[in-house]
Amino acid sequence: MKLYRFRSGSICKLFVGGLHGDEGLYTAPVLEILAGEAETVPDADIIIVPAITTGARYVGVLTEAYYHTREGMILTGLIKRYKPRFYFELHAYSEKSYSRLTSAEREKIEGVPPFVDLGKRVLIGSIAPVLRNTLFSTDDFCLTIELPHGIQRDHAVTVREHVLDILRLGLRCRTKIEMLGQLRRMYPEQVERAEELFLQYYRSHPYPSAPKLEPF
Question: How far apart are CA 41 and CA 35, in angstroms?
Answer without folding.
Answer: 10
